[in-house]
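G., the chain you wanted modeled:
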Amino acid sequence: MSTEKIPFLDLVTVHRELQDELVEVLKTALKSAGFIGGPMVQGFEEDFAGFCESRLCVGLGSGTDALRFALIAAGVKSGNIVITVPNTFIATTEAISQAGARPDFVDIDPTTYAMDSGKLREYLEHTCRWDPKTRQVTHNATGKLVTAIVPVHLYGQMADMDPILDLATQYNLKVVEDACQAQGAEYFSQKDNRWHKAGSMGHAAAFSFYPGKNLGACGEAGAMTTNDEQLAHTCRLLRDHGQSKKYFHDIEGYNGRLDAIQAGFLRVKLHHLTKWNEQRRQAAERYDKLFAGAEGLVTIPHQPSWARSVYHLYVVQVEDRARLQQQLNDVGIGTAIHYPIALHLTKAYEELGFRIGDFPIAEKSVAHILSLPMFPGLTADQQERVVTEVLKSLSVTSSELT
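Predicted structure as tokens:
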């Protein structure tokens, strides 16, 4: 078996393969000096909206911008509460805070790592009160209005959206999908009896095109999708200093525009995304088969019948993660942890007053998860070596413990 290093993520090969097309984008921009806005941005917005089966797309500077602007445009006000999950990148909660709101959390489903709709119902029924006259939800302990939910489509798999959307309708809450890791993921809605793409189910959705994403820019980039024309219009104002036209500011906004060159790069890559996502699915299937029979040593990702994951990450759970990660590193196999600290326990949110044990499922998962190599072009031989080394390490650990 080869001893060649296996990277956690290979961003070199894909850009080498697309080099000629990407250079043409750069040449076009240099010839026209069209660096901000213009046809490349508009073209990508139209293409990505179509890909997501959404009416509208607004290109933005980052996934954080996309989520922040979507929340503001959806009507989240200063002092409101927005519900999300604690096992996500801090950009999710930063966007909530920067929209003026307070992030609050519900625990996750232990098999999917996504928002547990049962815990969401408990939160709304037992920690809040509903006023049918005003159609508003008030958080009992703080007296703040709860106005939105941000389900996170984590690791490339969508959250269970039907019950989340039903609760949002019942309690008059906006739903903004954090789809930053889920370009192309799908969800089968029993209610609609059809598959839906990530970014097409909530009032709005946020996407990140950070370079390592399934659809990654060659720098920072993001987008918001929606079927609501007014929400999209507000996001367009917010991204460009509130300007309806140059120097005419309808509102106070931000500098959150998508660069034309990045839009051009993304448009080129979007044509390959379905193929790349399928390659990730095939790699995940190979991992699943290679890990068959290793129950008790390693917990592999669970894909429910209602999900079509795009496997942005292939995340396993093991008992002694630190040891496994070090031993894989020693033999040249790259890994990562997404994410090592649940957000309610991170220093940045100490003032919110959460404690260990508040969200036990999320806390347990973040202590044991490990992301294995996953990217288009990952070979069967590479995966066989990864799994062999994982099982070798875990078997030794297990024998030592017994």
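The chain has a mean pLDDT of 97.

Shout if anything looks off.
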